[in-house]
Amino acid sequence: QVQLVESGGGLVQAGGSLRLSCAASGRTFSRDAMGWFRQAPGKEREFVATISWSGAGTYYAGSVKGRFTISRDNAKNTVYLQMNSLKPEDAAVYYCAASGRTYGSDSYCYSAQEYDYWGQGTQVTVSS
User: Fold this and answer.
1) Could you say which DSSP state residue 53 is in?
2) Rounded CA separation 40/35 (Å)
3) C-beta separation of 56 from 63 below 8 A
4) What pLDDT is attached to residue 7?
5) What are the Cα distances from residue 42, in Å, to 15, 48, 95, 123, 125?
6) Could you report the per-residue pLDDT of 66-79, keeping only the tens digit for each?
7) Comparing C-alpha atoms, which of 24, 12, 17 is closest to residue 79?
8) pLDDT in tens, 87-118
9) HSE (side-chain half, CA atoms, 13 Å) at 21
10) Nearest one of 69, 70, 79, 67 to 29, comparing CA atoms
């Protein structure tokens, strides 16, 4: 049974930091592109960040570039999202996703339709 389990969400003041983790199980994801998405109440799910299986390729939404960093540890089947300088508009449920297929070592995907596996989400709340 394939599972992605996010953790690390919580309540933080504006300007603070959080580190999200996504632990994958059920199969190896070491050749998958991985991504983070988020969805705020009343809004559509939006792309946040993606990383290639090698870790060499990363891509960020403009709203988080320079503040968030995506990384992965293939030995642990885990992907991370370091979030710094958090703003109230970053508040959302954050979802981890795995492509379910092999991409090039530097290739990533930022379209939700490219992802086959999703976690249940972790809530991030940012107080002003």
Assistant:
1) T
2) 17
3) no
4) 98
5) 24, 17, 16, 15, 15
6) 999 999 999 999 99
7) 24
8) 999 999 999 999 988 888 889 999 999 999 99
9) 9
10) 79
